[in-house]
Amino acid sequence: MKGVIPAAGRGTRMRPFTKAYPKELLPVGEKAVIEHCINDLKNAGITEICVVVGWKQHAILDYLGSGERLGVDITYKVQEQKNGLATAIKCAENFIDGESFAVVLGDNYVDDKTAVKDLKQFHEEKGFEATIGTFEPEDVTSYGVINSGKNNKVKGMVEKPSKEEAPSNVAISGLYILNSSIFNAIDSIEKGKGEEYQLTDAIDLLREKTNNIGYKNIKGSRIDVGTPERLREANREYNLR
Fold first, then answer.
1. Rounded to a whole number, what is the distance in angstroms from the first to the last CA of the chain?
2. Parallel, antiparallel or unpaired: strands 222-224 and 73-78
3. Angle at which helices 115-126 and 33-43 cross, to 10°
4. Which one of 16, 20, 68, 121 counts the least CB within 10 Å of its CB?
């Protein structure tokens, strides 16, 4: 299995810091957050990794290089059009070459270092077409939210709903295991929330076709470093480990 790390966003909520470098290079402890993502994939036995870059891409290339320093092999793809996570994933299609793959968002800090490994194993055991790592935040309105069904099957999902629209309190963590069928689904969706191509829309389309999308709650804390408050929270969690 290979891994994909989308890291092409502009990080507008972290300005002025992200005027100089991407949010994926913001530090959690002594490492950039994207390095934690790479280590999480490596802990799952995934060492062939595609990093999808865009904004300030050379800073990420300079930091990660070929991946040799981290014990992995990194390939880079450039997301030319910044129009959604689904587009970022689509950039990695040739790299994936028909395999199943893990996705870890490049601004995600997860303090459970076995989260990707556990999700990968769960996906393979259950035979799902896609498996979503989930968590239960206090406020679901900043996340994709699933309609959780029996036997860890997803009945539906919506991107960044209002509190009234949210089908549950189970949110998407930014960790996924996907089969290559996701690429055809991405090709079939229209722009969604925020006038972007949303990965949640592609997964939900796949759910409608296969009724075989799963979810699994991850243990511990999951924090995206997209705001100063969340970056401080991630560092507090790191220091408590």
1. 29
2. unpaired
3. 40
4. 16
Q: How far apart are CA 175 and CA 172, in angstroms?
A: 8
Please enumerate in sequence order all residues whose Cβ is within 8 A of that of 167, keeping only pairs 6 or more positions apart, or say none.
Answer: 145, 146, 147, 148, 155, 156, 157, 158, 161
Max CA pair span of the chain: 47
Mean predicted confidence (pLDDT) in 211-227: 89
Residue 7 per-residue DSSP state? E
Is residue 15 predicted with pLDDT exceeding 60? no
Please report which confidence band the pLDDT of residue 57 belongs to, taking 50, 70 and 90 as the band edges: confident
pTM above 0.70, yes or no: yes
* CA distance linking residue 229 with residue 205, whole number of Å: 34
- Give the DSSP letter of residue 54: -
Q: Is the pLDDT of residue 42 over 80?
A: yes
Six token digits for residue 155: 């009945």
Q: Which CATH number is correct for 2-136+173-202+209-240, 3.40.50.300, 3.40.1190.20, 3.40.50.970, 3.90.550.10?
A: 3.90.550.10
CA distances from 196 to 52, 59, 91, 94, 204 (A): 17, 25, 15, 22, 15
